[in-house]
Write a structure and sequence with these properties.
alpha/beta; Transcription Regulator spoIIAA; 2 domains; five-stranded mixed sheet; 8% strand
């Protein structure tokens, strides 16, 4: 089984997380208002800090005994040094719940924890399970400590619950943001790999397109192509769409704009591989076909590009008898 390691430090770019998740002062206050978390809640939690200091170690030990019973979570703590460090971090994490000042700095600290949990692959269900364990353990101790004043224990527990739910919301948002960012980067990498701009020879580029084209991919194709035209000083580009099954009106109009943009950069665009379905679509939606230079297939497109560039193709079939006489 592959061992998991804990990051040596919490060097998480919290500013990037705060900005990416739109967690400004207004959003933080909005979350508090939604949970009805106010100054009275903060005061109740601060009063619990001394009590929390007393039961923190006991709760943490019981929590990790629980963790170590399950293979899914046990694997994170096989290294005793990691286990010791995680326990200390967890203790500080829980104690922070009763120290007051739940401002933007508090939010940043919570985002760090969520980001670290996401980076080591700790599933959300285990994260939520730890909170559930903690809340039950604290509730037992609260009601025991305020046995003669159950209403005070209940009020303190409700205040803690509000803050915990804000923390849980932040953690889940961090998980989602991290994963969506990863997926977006992967999709961008896949799109770039799936639409390479190839240089066939000096001043001639080929862009083979395979698969469906939506508006976003069409824009990316245009950007890649225009950069390649500038970088390679291309005069002609052959865009082969043999592998494109359909083209809608938005993509077709974007294609025309790409032709115009390429012309402004000094390059001629040749479209090859138009299927009957795509050709009918272009006619039906009324695309200005006078702006598009089309050729039947890729080979014909390359020959047309060579003609534009001034190259001349000369057929010179090999003469077997001539070759044998040279040996």
């Amino acid at each position: 089984m592959e061992k998991q390691s804990l990051p040596k430090s919490l060097n998480i770019d919290t500013l990037n997380l705060m900005n990416g998740m739109s967690l400004d002062e207004n959003e933080i206050q909005h979350r508090k208002d939604w949970l009805q978390f106010d100054q009275s809640d903060e005061a109740r939690l601060t009063e619990l800090n001394e009590m929390a200091q007393g039961y923190a170690d006991e709760v943490i030990e019981s929590l990790y005994e629980h963790f170590l019973k399950f293979e899914d979570t046990q694997r994170f703590f096989e290294d005793p040094n990691i286990l010791k460090r995680v326990k200390n971090l967890q203790k500080q994490y829980f104690l922070r719940l009763t120290k007051g000042n739940y401002d933007s700095k508090y939010i940043e600290e919570r985002l760090k924890i969520g980001a670290v949990h996401a980076s080591i692959g700790l599933d959300v269900k285990w994260y939520l399970g730890a909170y559930n364990f903690y809340m039950r353990a604290v509730a037992t101790r609260l009601f025991k400590a305020f046995e003669s004043k159950p209403e005070k224990a209940l009020a303190a527990f409700f205040s803690l619950t509000k803050l915990v739910y804000m923390d849980i919301g932040l953690a889940i948002d961090t998980y989602i943001y991290q994963r969506e960012s990863t997926i977006q980067r992967q999709q961008e990498a896949i799109r770039e790999l799936s639409t390479p701009v190839l240089q066939l020879r000096k001043e001639l580029l080929i862009l083979p397109i395979i698969g469906a084209i939506d508006a976003q991919r069409a824009r990316q194709l245009t950007e890649q192509l225009l950069h390649a035209i500038r970088d390679k000083r291309a005069k002609v580009v052959v865009v082969d769409i043999t592998g494109v099954p359909t083209v809608d009106s938005r993509v077709a109009n974007h294609l025309v704009q790409t032709v115009d943009a390429s012309r402004l950069m000094g390059a001629t665009l040749i479209i090859t591989g138009l299927s009957a379905e795509v050709a009918q679509t272009l006619v039906t939606i009324g695309v200005d076909l006078t702006k598009i230079h089309t050729v039947g297939d890729l080979q014909g497109g390359i020959e047309e590009a060579d003609r534009i560039l001034g190259y001349q193709l000369i057929d010179s079939p090999a003469d077997p008898s001539h070759l044998s006489s040279q040996e």
